[in-house]
Structure formats: structure tokens, C-alpha cells
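User
New here, explain this?
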Amino acid sequence: MPAEKQKAPEKPVPARRALGLLLSQLGTNAALSFGRKIAGFGISPPHVGMLRWIHANGGKNQRELASHLGVVPSRLVVLLDELETKGLIARERSLKDRRSQQLQLTRKGTRLLEKVERIAVAHDADLGSSLTAPELETLIELCAKLAANRGLTPHGHPGYGRRFTPGRSNRKLSNHSTPEQVG
């Protein structure tokens, strides 16, 4: 009987340094890791971005927040309802325009944001721990440049847009994705 023909082993696909893939891997890793670190507070990274904005812009309305973050209005209402139910924000009618709702952090929201910011600082330190200080600064500058070149919202987060569903167009999601400072 003739010897069976030996099948040559498949050659591995040569690795290439794909920027998109690397950024996607790092962004997903950073977002999921930060999300796990704050999960005990009952909030998500998109909630944190909203709390940060409301803290810095107390008294502004929902329309201004939606515009700043590039949030689909129906998605914004859901996220704000969640924060309000948890007692972290308050919506108050504007004295200037009764049709408008001004956003404020509650004391509970302010205390929670302070705790989350401490976690975020430690999270950032962990993410950049393998880089020197100059390397880290360069990386941050380059990522900010890439994001700005694509018109991405500086403090946006992919979670503000539609949920990713394989096989569907996710243009709204990708238009607002950033190498976010989730932490």
C-alpha cells in the first residue's frame, strides 16, 4: 500500500500591525475593564460620561447634553431616567423656558462621581503602566489627534448610541465612538 500523502501543515496568516484592530482590542478591553470596576455602583461607562458632563455643566438642559454627546434623544432619555431613578441626578423645569428641563447632580450623584473618578484615575494608571510617562503622553496626544480628525465627540462613548447588533448597520454607533477616556 502506498504511503499516505502527508498533508503539508497550513502556514499561519502573517501577522500585521493593524491599527484598527489594535485600537478596537484596546478600547474594548479598557471599556469592559472599567465597566466591571464600576458595576457595583449600578452604573455603566456611558452613565459616568453623563454624570461628568452634568457636573461640569449644571443647569444645562437635556437637548444640550444630547447635542454634546451625539446621543440619540430616545437613548438619552432612557439613560437619564436610569440616573434619576437611582437618585443621582435631578431634572428641574427651567425658570426661563418652562418647556426645558435643567439637569443637576444630586448630593448622592456628586459623591458617587467622586468615587468613580478615583477608580478612573487608578484605571488609567493601570492601562498605561507599561509605558513611560513621555510614551503615555505621546499616545494620548496621538489618539486625541486621530479622534479629532474623525470629528469624534471628545467625551463621547460608544454606549450612547444604538446597541451593536451583528449584521445591522451601526453607523450611529461608529460616528460617536472614541478612544474614550472611559476611565
About this structure: The CA atoms of residues 37 and 96 lie 40 Å apart.
